[in-house]
Design a protein that fits this description.
The protein is built from 20 helices and 42 strands. With 819 residues, it is of the alpha+beta class.
C-alpha cells in the first residue's frame, strides 16, 4: 500500500525522517519496499508568469516567451506547447534544474537560432501524469507569487512509502491502520477523522434492505443522497488519490475511493434513478444473495459475466446490479448526469467474498480488503466520513438512511486473552541495558505496550511482579490476528524492538543428524538412480476420476480438484508425455503420498512407484534400427538390483488384482514371503494401445512404511563383511516335474532352508512344457552350488545336504524328481 506522509501527518505527528520511519516500520514487521521522494521531482521548478508570447520565425509550432520567474530580468524560453499564451502562470524549470522523471537537465541552448534559458513544464514532465497535451497552467489565485517553489502547489512536497503488510494484518490496509501503527511505534498521539452521525432531512424512505444469508452479509447500511452535483474532485483530493495509485473519476466515486484508502472500508455508490430503472419501480429493496446459475451481469469493466452459485450479488428488487464486495454493475454506475445516489456501506464475510471473486476470476481493491477482513465495528465511522465529504464536496443532502443487521451482525467482534508476565519473559528472554547488564521486561513496560496496541489490560493477579496475569481485551480492528497469548507476546516483542532483546544460544549444542527414515530414503533414491532410473515429482492433486478419491471442497482449478489415490496413474501420464514430446521413454521412480477414502474415513500413505519401458540401449545398429522392448526379466532385474543394494529379500507371487496390469504378467511382492510389499507388472495391452506406448511397459508401487519397518534395524547397524572362500565350489543339478501354478520363489525358499550353510546359490537354468511332460505341470531344472569356507567339499559332505533338498521338495510340494 502507498502511504503519503503528508496525509499521514494529519492523523499522527511524525517527527522522523522518511528513512527513519521506514526503518521503524520495517523493524515492526511492515516492509517498506520503496521510498518515493517527490521533493526531488521538481527541485528548481518555480512559478513563472508569461509576459509576452511571439511565434518563432523559423518554426510554426514553437513560441518565444518572455517569462518572469522572479529574477532580475525576464527569461526567454522557447516553448512548443499549443496552450501557451501571455498572462498565465506556469511551472518553469530554471537552468541547471534536473527533472528525474524524464531524465533531463535544463541547460541554455539554441532552438532554431533563438536562445532558450529554461523550460515551461507539463504535468508529465513533473511526474504527475502519464501524458499531457500541453503545459500546466495554474488557476488564477491571488496567493500565487512569481518565483515561488511549485512543489507545495502541486502536492510534490510529499514522500510516499510503498508499504507491504503481512497477510494477518488486515487493519494495515488503510491509512488509519498505518497511523495507529506509527502512533504505537513512536508514542505520538493519534488523531482519527471521526465524524458524527448525519442529520437526516426526513425519516421517510422508499428503500428497504433484504439480507438473505445471515453470515455472508451481516450488516448493510443504505443511505439516500439527493441534490448532488457531479464534478471533478478538488485538487487536494485528486492529489491524494494519485499519490496512492488511484485514478480520479468524479467527486462521488473519488470520495468512496478516498474512504477506502483512509479507513480500509469499501463503499459503493449507486445512481438511484438507474437503480429504479433496473428494478422497474420507485420502491427499492436492496438485497444480498447468491446468484442463480442462469444469471448474468455487466460490470463496470464492460465485461458481461456469467454468474455462478457461489457469486454474491447486490440486487435491486431481486435483479442483479453489482458483485457484492467486488465490483459494481455498469447499468447503475454514477455518471455526469447523476443527481441522486444510494451509498452502500456493508460488511461481507471474508470467505464468501473470496469464493465470489474467484468464481469470476476477479480481484479488486475492495475484494482484497474484504478477503483479509474489514472491521465491522468501524463500518458506521467510514460511512459517516463518506457522507460528510459528499455533503461538503458534492452539495448532497441526506434524505434517508436504512440499516439492517442479522443476528451475526449484532455480535460485537471482541475477544479477551489471558497474558502471563512469566510466559512473556520465558519466550522473549532478557533485555540488554546501556551498561551491558541484563534485565527482564517489567510489568509496567508490558502494560504500556498493550495500551499502545489499543488493548485494555486488566491485572487479575498482583501478588508479585513475576506472577502478574492480565486479562487483555483485544480491540475490534485486531480481532482477526490477536487470538492467543503467543500473539500478544509477539506484538510486545515487535513494538519493544527485536533488536533490544539479548541474543542467546543453546547451552548444549548438538551436531545435526538425519533421522533413520530420511537416511533410508536417501539410500533408496541412490539405489534407484544407480539402477538407471530418474527421480520424478508430481503434484498430489489430479482430476477427479475415481469414486474413492478425496475431492477438495475449494480447489484452485477444476483440473486439480482431487488428491491422487496412487502413483501409477501419474507415472503413466509422465511416460506418455515424454514420448509425445520426443524425449524418448522415461524410466523413473517417485516417492510420494497418496490419499483415499472409504467407510472408515480419509486415509493417507506414502508409496514408492516407478515405471520402466522402451528400448534402454543407446544405439540400435545391432537390430538394424529397430527398437527392442524391455523384457520382463530385464525390468524385474532393475527392481531386484535395488532390493539387493538395500539388503531386502523379496519374493514374487502371481497376482491379477489390478485391471491396469497384464493378467498373466503381474506379481505381488512379499518380504521373505510374509510381509506384503507392493505390486509389479506389465501394463495391460489395451491400456498400452490406448496410450500409444511401447510394446512392453512395466510399473511398480511399493509400500514405504513396509520398507522402513523391514530395514530400520539395519540402518544404524555396522556392515559385516565376509571373506570370499578360497576353496572350490561343487555344483549339482536337480530336475523335476512341478505344477504350473507352483511359484519358483517358493521352491527356492524351501531349497535354501534345507540346503543349510553349505548351499551357496540356486539358479533356474531350464523350463520346459510340452511332449513327455504331464498335463498341468512343467519341467524345471536348477543348479545348486555348494561351497565351504574352510575346506574343499567331498561327495560325502555334499550328498547328505543335497538329499535333504530332494526330500524337502518331495515332502513339501510332492514334486516328481527326475534326477
Amino acid at each position: 500500500m502507498r502511504i503519503s506522509l503528508s496525509w499521514l501527518q494529519e492523523y499522527v505527528d511524525v517527527d522522523l525522517s522518511a528513512e527513519a520511519l521506514a526503518d521503524a516500520l520495517t523493524m515492526a514487521g511492515f516492509e517498506v519496499e520503496d521510498i518515493e521522494n517527490r521533493w526531488t521531482w521538481a527541485d528548481g521548478v518555480v512559478v513563472g508568469k508569461v509576459l509576452q508570447r511571439h511565434p518563432h520565425p523559423d518554426a510554426d509550432k514553437l513560441s518565444i516567451c518572455e517569462v518572469d520567474i522572479g529574477a532580475d530580468s525576464p527569461a526567454t524560453i522557447v516553448c512548443g506547447a499549443s496552450n501557451v499564451r501571455a498572462d498565465i502562470f506556469v511551472a518553469v524549470a530554471k537552468v541547471d534544474t534536473y527533472l528525474p522523471i524524464v531524465d533531463l537537465k535544463i541547460k541554455p541552448r539554441q532552438l532554431r537560432g533563438v536562445p532558450s534559458a529554461g523550460m515551461i513544464c507539463s504535468l508529465a514532465e513533473l511526474g504527475l501524469a502519464k501524458d499531457s497535451e500541453g503545459i500546466y497552467v495554474f488557476a488564477e489565485d491571488a496567493s500565487l507569487e512569481v518565483g515561488q517553489d511549485v512543489r507545495p502547489l502541486l502536492g510534490l512536497n510529499d514522500v510516499i512509502l510503498d508499504l507491504t503488510s503481512t497477510a494477518n494484518r488486515a487493519d494495515a490496509l488503510s491509512l488509519v491502520g498505518v497511523a495507529r501503527e506509527v502512533a504505537a511505534i513512536t508514542g505520538k498521539a493519534l488523531k482519527l477523522p471521526l465524524t458524527p452521525d448525519p442529520q437526516l432531512d426526513s425519516g421517510q424512505t422508499d428503500l428497504a434492505i433484504d439480507l438473505r444469508d445471515p453470515r455472508a452479509c451481516p450488516v448493510y447500511i443504505g443511505t439516500v443522497l439527493e441534490n448532488i452535483t457531479i464534478e471533478p474532485s478538488p485538487t487536494w483530493l485528486q492529489r491524494r488519490l494519485e499519490a496512492s495509485g488511484t485514478r480520479s473519476i468524479n467527486n462521488i466515486v473519488d470520495i468512496t475511493n478516498y474512504v477506502l484508502l483512509e479507513w480500509g472500508q469499501p463503499l459503493h455508490a449507486f445512481d438511484r434513478d438507474r437503480l429504479c430503472a433496473v428494478a422497474e419501480s420507485q420502491d427499492l429493496t436492496l438485497g444480498v444473495r447468491f446468484a442463480n446459475p442462469d444469471e448474468a451481469l455487466k460490470t463496470l469493466d464492460a465485461q458481461t459475466r456469467s454468474l455462478q452459485p457461489q457469486t454474491l450479488l447486490i440486487t435491486a428488487n431481486d435483479r442483479p446490479v453489482a458483485l457484492a464486495g467486488v465490483m459494481g454493475g455498469e447499468a447503475t454506475e454514477v455518471f455526469d448526469g447523476t443527481q441522486s445516489v444510494i451509498l452502500e456501506a456493508a460488511y461481507f464475510d471474508a470467505a464468501a467474498i473470496r469464493r465470489s471473486a474467484r468464481s469470476q476470476g476477479l480481484r479488486t481493491e475492495a475484494s482484497a480488503r474484504y478477503e483479509r477482513g474489514v472491521n465491522p465495528a468501524e463500518l458506521r465511522l467510514a460511512c459517516n466520513r463518506a457522507l460528510q465529504l459528499m455533503q461538503a464536496l458534492a452539495g448532497a443532502t441526506i434524505s434517508a438512511q436504512v440499516a439492517e443487521r442479522t443476528e451475526v451482525g449484532k455480535i460485537t467482534p471482541t475477544r479477551t486473552v489471558e497474558l502471563r508476565l512469566e510466559r512473556v519473559r520465558q519466550i522473549l528472554g532478557p533485555v540488554g541495558q546501556p551498561g551491558g547488564t541484563l534485565a527482564q521486561l517489567s510489568a509496567a513496560e508490558t502494560e504500556a505496550i498493550l495500551s499502545k496496541l489499543g488493548c485494555e489490560a486488566l491485572a487479575t493477579e498482583a501478588a508479585t511482579d513475576t506472577g502478574r496475569v492480565w486479562q487483555v481485551k483485544v480491540p475490534a480492528y485486531r480481532y482477526r490476528d490477536l487470538e492467543r497469548e503467543i500473539d500478544l507476546i509477539e506484538e510486545i516483542a515487535r513494538l519493544y524492538g527485536y533488536d533490544r532483546f539479548v541474543d542467546t544460544l543453546p547451552s548444549n549444542a548438538e551436531a545435526g543428524y538425519l533421522s533413520e527414515e530420511i537416511a533410508l530414503a536417501r539410500r533408496l533414491r541412490e539405489a534407484f538412480r544407480a539402477a538407471g532410473l530418474t527421480e520424478l515429482m508430481h503434484y498430489s492433486v489430479v482430476k477427479p476420476t475415481l469414486t474413492n478419491q478425496v475431492v477438495m471442497a475449494n480447489p484452485l482449478l477444476p483440473e486439480y480438484s482431487a488428491l491422487r489415490s496412487d502413483l501409477i496413474a501419474g507415472l503413466i501420464d509422465a511416460f506418455q508425455f515424454n514420448l509425445e514430446q520426443g524425449n524418448g521413454a522415461l524410466n523413473g521412480f517417485e516417492l510420494g503420498h497418496i490419499f483415499w477414502q472409504d467407510e472408515a474415513g480419509i486415509h493417507e500413505a506414502e508409496k514408492v512407484g516407478g515405471i520402466i519401458g522402451g528400448d534402454r540401449r543407446q544405439g540400435h545398429w545391432i537390430t538394424s534400427g529397430q527398437p527392442q522392448p524391455t523384457g520382463w526379466y530385464e525390468a524385474k532385474g532393475v527392481l531386484a538390483a535395488v532390493f539387493q543394494r538395500l539388503g531386502l529379500t523379496v519374493d514374487y507371487r502371481a497376482d491379477a488384482t489390478d485391471g491396469r496390469f497384464h493378467p498373466g504378467r503381474m506379481a505381488s511382492l512379499w518380504v521373505r514371503g510374509q510381509t506384503y510389499l507392493g505390486l509389479f507388472g506389465q501394463l495391460h495391452p489395451e491400456l498400452r494401445r490406448e496410450r500409444d506406448l511401447p510394446d512392453e511397459v512395466y510399473v511398480f508401487q511399493l509400500d514405504w512404511p513396509t520398507i522402513v519397518g523391514c530395514l530400520q534395524k539395519k540402518i544404524g547397524a555396522a556392515t559385516e563383511f565376509q571373506p570370499y572362500s578360497t576353496y572350490p565350489a561343487s555344483d549339482r543339478d536337480l530336475a523335476f516335474f512341478a505344477p504350473v501354478e507352483l511359484a519358483v520363489a517358493d521352491l527356492e525358499r524351501v531349497m535354501t532352508q534345507a540346503g543349510g550353510k553349505l548351499l551357496e546359490s540356486i539358479a533356474l537354468f531350464d523350463q520346459y512344457q510340452g511332449a513327455s511332460v504331464p498335463d498341468g505341470q512343467r519341467s524345471l531344472a536348477f543348479r545348486l552350488v555348494y561351497r565351504a569356507s574352510d575346506r574343499t567339499l567331498t561327495d560325502d559332505d555334499i550328498e547328505p545336504a543335497h538329499q535333504k533338498v530332494r526330500a524337502a521338495l518331495a515332502k513339501k510340494f510332492e514334486v516328481n524328481l527326475r534326477s
